[in-house]
Design a protein that fits this description.
Helices cover 80% and strands 0% of the residues. By secondary structure, the chain is mainly alpha-helical. The relative contact order is 0.16. It holds the Pfam family MFS_1. One of its GO terms (molecular function) is transmembrane transporter activity.
C-alpha cells in the first residue's frame, strides 16, 4: 500500500470532517452531566438509573465499533458513516418526543444514539489514522478536540434554550446542528484503502492485550467526573443550576488544550509515553476531589481533571495506532479494543451511582472507585509500553 501522505488538502480535510463527527459523538456524550441533573429531577429516578442512559450510549459506541471497524477495513466506510449519521439524528429527534418517559429516553438517547455513535466513531478514527504517520498524534489530537467543541456547544445550547423553549425544542435545536455538521462530514470524508476483516494475531501480542486491559480499567472510571460533577455541585456544594452547567462547560472547554498539548508532545515522545503521566494526573485528581468543599475549589478541580481526561481520550486511539504496524488493520484492532472498553463504559457510571446511593448521597466511595480504576489502568499501560520497548530492542525512554 502507498505510505500515508502525512498532510496535504485531502488529509487535513479528513481531520476537519472527523472533528465534526467527534463533536457529535463524544461531544454530546460528554454533555450528559446536564441530562444527569435534569433527568434526576424531572423523572424522579435515582442517579444509577439515569446513568444507564449515558453509559449505554458509550457502551454501544465501543461495542458496535468492533463490527464497524471491520466493515471499514473491508471497504464499507461510506455506508457505515451514512447509517451512523441517520441513527444519530433519529435518536436525538426521538428524544425530543419522549417527554417524561424514562424508557423512551433510554431507547432514544441511550440505544438509538449509541448505535449511531458506534457506526460513526471507530470507523472515523481508523480512516484518519491511515492519512498520517509522523504527524498522526497531532492529527488525532485535533480530531479529539471535537469532544471539547461539542462539550461547549451542546451544554451552552441547553443552558440558553431549556428554560425558554422547553426540553423538546431544545433537543430539536441540537438535532438541527447535528444534521448540518454530519451532512458536511458525509459529503467530504473519504477512506484511503480497504483491508482485512480479522486480526486474531493481535491477541497473541502481550503489549496489545495489556493495552486492552488497561483501556478497560481507565474507561471504567473516566466518565465519573463528566457525569457527576453537576450533580455533586448541586447536592454537596449547593451550587446554582447555572453554576452546575458552567462547571460542565469548564471541564469540556479545557479539554481543547488537554487534547492538543499532549498529542503534540506525543509526536516527539510517543503517545504511550504521554498517556502514562496524563492518566496519573487524572487518577490522582479523582482522589483529590474528595477534599473539595467549595465552589471555587470545584472549578479549579474541573480544570485539572478536564485537562487530564481530555488527554486520556485523545491519546488512547493514538496509542493504539502506535501498536499497529500495518495501517490496513487499524480499524480491526481499534474495534477489538473498543468492544472490551464498551463493557467498562456500560457499567462504570451506574456502579458509581449505586455506590453514591448506597452511601446515602456521599461521594467518597465512588471517588475512590473511579480514581483506583484510572490508576490501575495506568499501571497496565505502563506494562504494555515496557513490553513494546523490549520487543523493539529499545530503552525505556524510547518513542512508543
Amino acid at each position: 500500500p502507498h505510505p500515508p501522505p502525512d498532510g496535504g488538502p485531502a488529509a487535513w480535510l479528513a481531520v476537519f470532517c472527523a472533528h465534526l463527527i467527534v463533536m457529535n459523538t463524544w461531544g454530546f456524550i460528554n454533555t450528559f452531566g446536564v441530562f444527569q441533573t435534569y433527568y434526576a429531577t424531572s423523572l424522579s429516578r435515582p442517579p444509577a438509573d439515569i446513568s444507564w442512559i449515558g453509559s449505554t450510549q458509550i457502551f454501544l459506541l465501543f461495542f458496535v465499533g468492533a463490527l464497524t471497524g471491520r466493515l471499514t477495513d473491508a471497504g464499507y466506510f461510506r455506508p457505515v458513516l451514512a447509517v451512523g449519521s441517520a441513527l444519530q439524528v433519529l435518536g436525538i429527534f426521538s428524544s425530543s418526543f419522549a417527554g417524561g418517559s424514562y424508557w423512551q429516553l433510554f431507547l432514544a438517547q441511550g440505544v438509538c444514539m449509541g448505535l449511531g455513535n458506534g457506526f460513526l466513531f471507530c470507523p472515523t478514527m481508523a480512516v484518519v489514522a491511515t492519512y498520517f504517520e509522523r504527524r498522526r498524534a497531532v492529527a488525532i489530537g485535533i480530531v479529539a478536540c471535537g469532544t471539547a467543541t461539542g462539550g461547549l456547544v451542546f451544554p451552552g445550547m441547553v443552558r440558553e434554550l431549556l428554560g425558554r423553549v422547553g426540553f423538546a425544542w431544545t433537543m430539536r435545536a441540537v438535532g438541527g446542528v447535528q444534521v448540518v455538521t454530519l451532512g458536511v462530514a458525509n459529503g467530504w470524508l473519504r477512506p484511503r484503502r480497504g483491508g482485512e476483516w480479522l486480526d486474531l494475531g493481535a491477541l497473541r501480542e502481550v503489549e496489545y492485550v495489556l493495552y486492552m486491559g488497561g483501556s478497560f480499567m481507565m474507561f471504567l472510571g473516566l466518565y465519573f467526573g463528566y457525569y457527576y460533577i453537576s450533580a455533586f455541585s448541586r447536592s454537596v456544594i449547593h451550587a446554582s443550576y447555572e453554576d452546575s452547567l458552567n462547571l460542565l462547560l469548564v471541564i469540556n472547554g479545557v479539554g481543547i488544550p488537554g487534547r492538543l498539548v499532549p498529542n503534540a508532545l506525543a509526536d516527539r515522545f510517543g503517545p504511550l509515553t504521554m498517556l502514562l503521566p496524563t492518566a496519573l494526573v487524572g487518577g490522582v485528581a479523582v482522589f483529590a476531589w474528595a477534599a473539595v468543599d467549595s465552589l471555587g475549589g470545584l472549578y479549579a478541580w474541573g480544570v485539572v481533571y478536564g485537562l487530564a481526561a481530555g488527554g486520556i481520550q485523545s491519546l488512547f486511539p493514538a496509542g493504539l495506532a502506535s501498536l499497529t504496524a500495518d495501517p490496513r488493520k487499524t480499524g480491526v484492532r481499534m474495534g477489538m479494543v473498543f468492544s472490551v472498553c464498551s463493557f467498562a463504559t456500560l457499567i462504570g457510571p451506574p456502579i458509581a451511582g449505586a455506590i453514591i446511593t448506597a452511601s446515602g448521597g456521599r461521594y467518597i466511595g465512588a471517588q475512590v472507585y473511579a480514581g483506583s480504576a484510572l490508576l490501575v489502568g495506568m499501571v497496565m499501560m505502563a506494562a504494555a509500553r515496557t513490553v513494546k520497548c523490549r520487543k523493539a530492542g529499545k530503552g525505556l525512554w524510547a518513542k512508543i
